[in-house]
């Protein structure tokens, strides 16, 4: 009888995560993550975005298993067939290739580009922004004027210029998009640093002998992360559209790679008579862009202290 009562009163994992009095730093951190997750998933639109993005990521990961045909195999006798024709779920393109299989493999390219840009651009912007905000003076002036120059040009136009100079290809497209995407992150990081650098805890750390590098990387960067994460998720759709635009113009992934923008470019010639060739890749770009926007809105509600206080 006693053992049963002890078992029933033993706190479970959920109670441990929701405890108002965490017993360790690890428990407090885990509780904060769990409560943030609960708030994130309580938003129905954010949950929808997570579901769509999860399905797209799973489709990209298991593309070889889910694909019904070789995405590169050509069959001119079966070109421009409508959706559902002889097992081709989304029909075939102008070379008789299965559009469904090419969409699955194209998701890999889009997610690959997004992940690389999301790693490179925010890191570059964080370094430049925190350096400018912490040191101030001529360092701030020079770095921010360079940032203003990049911001003065439309992102796609600047990316086109970089790709034209570097050469067409996925890696060069990633580099070009990263070089055009970092300025907003630098602005955010600089603004955060300007509000932090004169704080009492920064003065205390400086009095203890910490140098600028340690202060920036150990104490300022962690406080900038949440703002940058929000911006990254909201920028994902723009990154995908820029990558698709480069592919549409023939400066991104090169044929026969099944990149969604290139598929739209190929199908535009047949848009009136064979609508599915360009429309279905366009719907895929719309779906992943919408998913990232919904997730970004949800993360802003969770991570932004101004929104959290409402």
From TrEMBL:
The chain crosses the membrane at residues 45-67, 111-136, 156-182, 228-254, 274-296. Pfam families: BPD_transp_1, OppC_N. This is ABC transporter permease. GO terms for cellular component: plasma membrane. The keyword Transmembrane applies. InterPro entries: BP-dependent_transpt_permease, MetI-like, MetI-like_sf, OppC_N. It is found in: Cell membrane. Belongs to the binding-protein-dependent transport system permease family. It is a multi-pass membrane protein. It comes from the Bacteria. Residues 111-296 form the ABC transmembrane type-1 domain.
């Amino acid at each position: 009888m006693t053992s049963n009562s002890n078992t029933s009163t033993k706190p479970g994992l959920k109670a441990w995560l929701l405890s108002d009095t965490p017993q360790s730093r690890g428990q407090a951190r885990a509780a904060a993550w769990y409560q943030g997750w609960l708030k994130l998933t309580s938003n129905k639109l954010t949950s929808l975005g997570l579901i769509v993005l999860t399905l797209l990521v799973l489709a990209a990961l298991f593309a070889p298993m889910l694909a019904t045909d070789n995405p590169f195999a050509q069959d001119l006798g079966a070109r421009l067939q409508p959706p559902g024709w002889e097992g081709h779920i989304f029909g075939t393109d102008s070379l008789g290739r299965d559009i469904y299989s090419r969409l699955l493999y194209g998701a890999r390219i889009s997610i690959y580009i997004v992940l690389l840009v999301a790693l490179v651009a925010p890191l570059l912007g964080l370094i430049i922004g925190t350096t400018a905000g912490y040191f101030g003076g001529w360092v701030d002036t020079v770095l921010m004027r360079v940032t203003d120059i990049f911001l003065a040009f439309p992102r796609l136009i600047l990316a086109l210029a970089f790709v034209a100079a570097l050469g067409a290809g996925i890696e060069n497209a990633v580099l070009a998009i990263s070089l055009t995407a970092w300025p907003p992150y630098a602005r955010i990081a600089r603004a955060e640093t300007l509000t932090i650098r004169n704080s009492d805890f920064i003065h205390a750390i400086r009095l203890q002998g910490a140098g600028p590098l340690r202060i920036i990387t150990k104490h300022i960067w962690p406080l900038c992360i949440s703002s940058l994460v929000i911006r990254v998720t909201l920028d994902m759709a723009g990154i995908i559209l820029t990558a698709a635009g480069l592919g549409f113009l023939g400066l991104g992934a090169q044929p026969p790679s099944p990149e969604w923008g290139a598929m739209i470019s190929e199908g535009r010639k047949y848009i009136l008579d064979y609508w599915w060739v360009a429309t279905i890749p366009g719907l895929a770009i719309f779906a992943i862009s919408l998913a990232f926007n919904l997730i970004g809105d949800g993360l802003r509600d969770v991570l932004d202290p101004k929104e959290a206080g409402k």
